[in-house]
Amino acid sequence: MNSTKRQQTLQAGKHPLYRRRFLKDKLAQHFVGIGGVSVIIAILLIFFYLLYTVIPMFESAEIKLESSYVSPGKGKTLFVGVEELGEMAVRFTDLGEVVFFNTKDGAIVHQDQLVIPAAITAITDHGDRILLGFANGNVLAVRYKFESSYGNDMRKLTPVLEYPLGEAPVVLDEDGSALQKLAFTVTDDAIGIAAVTEDNRLIYSRYTQEQSFLDESISTVLESSSVHQMKKTVQSLSLTPNLQYLYIVAGEDNLLQFNIARSGFDEAPVLRHFKTAISDMRLLLGGSSVLVGLDNGEIQQWMQVRGKDEAGENTRTLTFIRKFSSGSQPVTAIATEHRRKGFAVGDEKGQLTIYYTTSERTLAHIEVAKTKLTHLAWSARAQNLLAVDDEEKIYAYKVRNEYPEVSWDVLWGKVWYEGYDEPDYIWQSSASTNEFEPKLSLVPLTFGTIKAAFYAMLFAVPIALLGAIYTAQFMAPTMRQTVKPSIEIMEALPTVILGFLAGLWLAPLVEEQLAGVFVLLVLLPPGFLLCAWLWRYAPVKFNIEGWEAAILIPVVFLLIWLAMSLGQPIEDLFFDGDLRTYMSNVWGIGYDQRNSLVVGLMMGFAVIPTIFSIAEDALFSVPQHLIRGSLALGATRWQTLMRVVLPAASPAIFSALMMGFGRAVGETMIVLMATGNTPIMDMNIFEGMRTLSANIAVEVPEAEVASTHYRVLFLAALVLFMFTFLVNTVAEIVRQRLRQRYSAL
């Protein structure tokens, strides 16, 4: 009676034990719900933070007019330059005046008058060095500087003029003809000057500077000089920074290239004929590419590309790379950025357009004036731009253009970079020179990620799945209690230790015993089959069912010893004693010590526990009544495994494979330490790779915060995030369908 009342009290919810149990259930339910929602929120926050960091890269440039005013000083503008932060500018005039002025209002800060021997007939620049050409054939080099000092938390700029070739003009043309066009380049050990005279003679002089041991004064010495009579009128000249090539616009539509590496015109020029008249020409940063502005508003980029001549000899050919166009008006001014591959273009109608070569982007377009633009000048940081029209009015612009290097084509398409023979997928985010062109293709990194995961899964999946099948269905329970925890413990090994072993132990071992490794791969399957066949004839008293795997342990060691012993004799017999050299010389297959084979072996070793544990649990959890029913109907154990056990466990097995693949895709330390970390696209198992995760680990500490490099690395993280999310989503869909299909079992 008391028991009946107690049960009725519990059912009514009045007993304290019931209330405590009900409270615990509710708390557990809420905590689990909060935990699940928190995980989802955390993942979404990661996604939105990555997106927040990446989005600014794809914004267009902004250009804003800060001020406009009449050019300070007297005379016609020949050249205009801007200080690094855009606070002060300099203007050279045809009267020999050098005017330093404030860019905000045009107020004159300092003014110098150059001593000129004759009328100025030509001018050119090389960075902050200006070369003036005169009507008497002389030249004068002037360097302008903005020396900065700080006091009372204020930045003070002091204009300074220097004379790299001396204050006295240098005689360039001994005949005294007026110089019409100039080109000027200064290197560490030489100075090159090219000029075209009034009578259409092309002069190239190379100078060296020597320092006196007595008073440490520097004198300029003429090293060589060459003269070439031009047949057509020269419109423009450009000297490459290495003093190897001289580009000339001859006539209206011809681009010539002289090789002047030997300080002369000993080689015939390369001729490129344009269908439209050339209106301007400018070398891009570094001098590897030349920009040609045309009368139809088009700007073409040309550069030197290696190739073969008619005789089959290696040569370099001036090759068209890409073009830019935003209108139909003739190009009147081109200004290249000082530190990047961007440039600004002014046209006949006063329109200003900003481009970037590598990404082929038109970044900004604005109408500056109603008349043509004659001069453009960038500040060193490309945050300020001055434009001068033919009415001597100056326009000062503020430019926000932080990430011009990035576009969809740069990230995922083939790009023709300077110094390469053809368009390609390249990742090279930094270099030691300022003229470097960032190469930010994510394709090699994505390819490397998939390649590493593929070889790891190729090694891990057969071993893990077959091991799980045998352990769950055929292994003796006592042995299973030892084997399964042992394999699961392997998953706790730090991947940095595995990467250390792969790089410093496994990679040299595989390189030394390469032939033995392949012999082992060939010997293992028939060795196992032979052992199984011989086991059939063993006496019944040795037939210990479920412990066969233990018998294979000495067989495995025996086969490893046999394969390593046969490796060198096989190399001597078939591969001239060295398999790696033979592959390289005969098959054209390169070999790196830290390669995909090493990564596949060690990363496969790391992935095996994940796949094995999940798959083994699923196989072992298949209801026994299904297995017994199948056996009772006459099916063998293998038929039962294939027709009953595997289909019933297939959703979990598929999940195990996807978990293993996700682990392989996201692995960092093993790939980082066991490969050459070279971002190449080659499925060769003997070559290395660089993965997205390894690249992030290597380069994030070195990337400047908020730089293009920094944000592209975050984009790589976003790609990895989206890739794993997509794979897991597809895996879940497939798993649910498999579960529905085999739910009747």
**How big is the Rg?**
37 Å
Task: State the helicity in percent bands.
Answer: 25-40%
Cα separation of the termini: 45 Å
Report the uncertain regions. Answer: none
What's the number of helices?
Answer: 15
Total number of strands: 31
What class do helices, strands and sheet pairing give? Answer: alpha+beta
Described by the principal axes of the CA atoms, the overall outline is elongated
Q: Give the DSSP E fraction (strand runs of 2 or more residues).
A: 25-35%
Could you report the average pLDDT, rounded to the nearest whole number?
87
Biggest pleated sheet:
5 strands, antiparallel
Could you explain how this protein is built, in words?
- This protein is of the alpha+beta class and 745 residues long.
- Helix content is 39%, strand content 29%.
- The chain has 15 helices and 31 strands.
- The strands form 8 sheets. Strands 6, 7, 8, 9 and 10 form a 5-stranded antiparallel β-sheet that branches. Strands 1-29-28-27 form a 4-stranded antiparallel β-sheet, with no helix packed on it. A 4-stranded antiparallel β-sheet has the order 2-3-4-5, with no helix packed on it.
- Helix 7 (514-535) packs across helix 8.
- The two termini are 45 Å apart.
- The model has no long low-confidence stretch (mean pLDDT 87).
List the helices and strands and how they pair.
Elements: H1 2-11, H2 16-54, E1 62-70, E2 77-82, E3 88-93, E4 97-102, E5 108-113, E6 120-126, E7 129-134, E8 138-151, E9 154-162, E10 170-171, E11 179-186, E12 191-197, E13 201-211, E14 218-229, E15 234-239, E16 245-250, E17 254-259, E18 270-273, E19 278-283, E20 289-294, E21 298-308, E22 314-325, E23 331-336, E24 342-347, E25 351-356, E26 361-367, E27 373-378, E28 384-389, E29 393-400, H3 408-412, E30 427-428, E31 439-440, H4 443-473, H5 477-490, H6 495-512, H7 514-535, H8 548-574, H9 579-587, H10 596-620, H11 624-632, H12 637-666, H13 669-674, H14 692-699, H15 708-741
Antiparallel strand pairs: 1-29, 2-3, 3-4, 4-5, 6-7, 7-8, 8-9, 8-10, 11-12, 12-13, 13-14, 15-16, 16-17, 17-18, 19-20, 20-21, 21-22, 23-24, 24-25, 25-26, 27-28, 28-29, 30-31
Helix pairs in contact: 2-15, 4-10, 4-12, 5-10, 6-7, 6-10, 7-8, 10-12, 11-12, 12-15, 14-15
